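During the first year of the project, the team set up a workflow for recording each protein of interest as an amino acid sequence followed immediately by a discrete structure-token representation. This format lets reviewers and collaborators read both layers of information side by side without switching files. As required by the reporting guidelines, we include two representative entries from the current panel. The first entry is reproduced here exactly as it appears in our internal archive.
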Amino acid sequence: MKNNIISAFGAFLCISALAYLNSFDESNLWLIPPFGASMVLVMAAHESPLAHPKNILFGHILSALS
């Protein structure tokens, strides 16, 4: 239970930081749905193979290029 609360708080903190960055300059889009999903995946399922940094980084790069 404690691990779930810490994971939820970490995801909330990261998504809130992106929303705060987005409030300064609305021409740059910082808060996009895949970042939120990635934060929840990294914080809640950090043992999962899908939560490894290389998978998240290359996944975002490939989706940006396509």
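The second entry, processed by the same pipeline in the following quarter, appears below.
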Amino acid sequence: MANPSSLPLHERITRKNTIQRAFDLILLFLLFSLLVYRIASLNNHGFTWLLAFMCESWFTFLWLLTISTKWNQVEYKTYPDRLSQRVPELPPVDMFVTTADPMLEPPIITVNTVISLLAVDYPANKLACYVSDDGGSPLTFFSLVEASKFAKLWVPFCKKYNIPTRAPFRYFSSESVSSSKNYSSEFKQEWKRMKEEYDELCRKIEEAVQKSKPCDLTGDFAVFSNIERKNHPSIIKVIWENKEGLFNGLPHLVYISREKRPKHPHHYKAGAMNALTRISGVMTNAPFMLNVDCDMFANNPQIVFHSMCLFLGIENERDCAFVQSPQIFYDGLKDDPFGNQYFVLQETMSRGMAGIQAAMYQGTNCFHRRKVIYGLSPDESEAKMRNLSSINGTGINYNFVTCFLLILFSCCDLCLHVLHYFCLLGKFIEKGLDKNFGNSMDFTKSTAETFSGWKVKTDRSNNLSSFLEAARQVAACEYEYSTSWGTKVGWIYGSTTEDILTGMKIHARGWGSVFCTPDPPAFQGCAPSSGLTTMNPNEEMVHGPSRNPFQ
């Protein structure tokens, strides 16, 4: 019997698609035959035939690219139950939720997404959830405050009874236990209580939506008085803080509305994601980050474990810069007449791209390595343990010197203080980082930690409130000036489809990526209900990259 600690965390399985390959080749043969026919009879038909030949040549070329992309389709089978045997301490994860307009994106949908993330099966002291509200709406903040109160009851309930669906609106719409004999009386009683609490949450949010102001703008809400949607200072509120670092408690929950001014470009979602990255870097600085849209709730409570199986179990980390999960929609129309389930894209193209180590970044449902988002290449990542000079240009082998002094001084407590002061040499590392990442000392220090790969244990993750001032600094609209944010660092600017440009930039540095398709699906969202609403995101997907192809 194999040693449990030696078993792999995941398997890479090649899908059998012989019939599909045969069909693709037959179609390619027919296309080439048509081109040969056009050339052979070109003299008899003149310009019209030539024009048809050029068009068909282009379609043949596109079909050839399509075949090559989906030829070798793979999927990854993960084993979350083996993580505890292979990994002594799980890494922290920062979770990002983005929303922009409470009228277009109802707060109850955002709230359900946030609650589903807070309730995932992962140590609560390893998680932090940051919600970016680009609309600066007191309604969104009010909804999150009320949701945090409900989450304190909902999260223990889910983990106690192993509830499969952690988004309450989906759970209560599909589950009915009142007449079932398969549940204990204790569960039925708690289920009824949770249903009443959720109905009360919905009522409060619905009443707030109907008002011009969701509540009196005093206390924590005073900052929302007299602000404009596109003209306001940074607003950062720690809604809930897991100060005790409880394993089974409620993860941190932070509300963020970055500073916006009329004469400063905000770069849409890419700008919001970069602000989230910097703020979380100052506060918790987890080595992995998850980003989801406000309408994509966590459908599989084990998704963080599944992703960690890929990040931590892969042989070479250069093959896994990010882990992308597909966009799956519930309540779609039968037979998908508008194509908004993206079946071909998810089932064939994405799996095929994963087969060539290049799963496409889709802008949501994606786990990232923080150092990759910071612009680190695979070669720099591999060199960091040997010499950090490749990053900061100081020429000092900091890791070697630190390890040497650690051995030398570890024999006495007094000398450990000497080692502590020697760590001030880390400022050598910080020099050069401010040119790319900005002039925040707190963020520069966290960036140096990320690049070095140290597992430094500080009170950062359990004391978020003490970093609020530093967080406001990095959320300022002028912070990115004269830095590499949006060009070499973070989400890339220059297109409304920041996901495609960012993914291409990551792959261009030499990183690979993985397509994660657990069962049940990792995330789910509401499917567009009409052809027009389907066409809007499709138009952005097609035309977005072409607006700045040389970014």
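For the second entry, the following points were noted during internal review. Residues 388-430 have pLDDT under 50 and may be disordered. The CA atoms of residues 94 and 289 lie 5 Å apart. Both points are flagged for discussion at the upcoming steering committee meeting.
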